[in-house]
Design goal:
This protein is α/β, with parallel strands linked by helices. It contains 5 helices and 8 strands.
Length: 167
């Protein structure tokens, strides 16, 4: 399976920790492609940069995409758990999962203001031309569009990311 991890870079000092969260766990089921991009200037929530990263994948239809913000870490079981979820749910085209934020677990609630983009693993064929609005709640608007476009969404009530872990 192919996994494209997209990171909009505003804090390059977090590279090592993010890299380790991606590559230190068992990932034999995944071919991982980490796409990074930094733009100078102020970008609300990194939405413009995330959209440019999605454009890099426009010709890709095979595989999955996960947006990993540069203050968020993958859970150590992310790769093995998501591979198992995909194998158990072969018709699914998006997975929404819980996240840990400062010790609190937030279940996947796909609505604006209640979800972070790091709570979704999305099949590339679902993304199409959908992009994040350049708003603070752009993640929620984008994921609502993903949910509406999905044929089968799976909700996973376990955390697979650590939101705002890095500063």
């Amino acid at each position: 399976m192919r996994l494209h991890v997209l990171t909009a870079v505003t804090r390059p000092e977090n590279f090592n920790a993010i890299y380790n969260s991606i590559y230190d766990s068992n990932h034999h089921d995944w071919q991982i492609y980490w796409h990074l991009l930094h733009l100078d200037g102020d970008h609300i929530g990194g939405q413009k940069v995330k959209n440019l990263l999605f454009e890099v994948l426009d010709d890709e239809q095979d595989g999955w995409v996960y947006v990993l913000d540069d203050d968020t870490l993958m859970h150590p079981a992310f790769l093995s758990r998501t591979a198992a979820l995909i194998n158990a749910n072969p018709e699914a085209d998006v997975f929404f999962f819980a996240r840990v934020d400062h010790g609190n677990v937030f279940q996947p609630d796909v609505k604006v203001g209640s979800i972070d983009i790091g709570q979704a693993l999305i099949h590339l064929s679902l993304v199409g031309d959908l992009r994040l609005p350049e708003l603070y709640d752009g993640d929620g608007w984008f994921l609502e569009g993903i949910r509406q476009a999905a044929d089968q969404a799976v909700y996973v009530n376990e955390p697979l990311s650590f939101y705002n872990r890095l500063r």
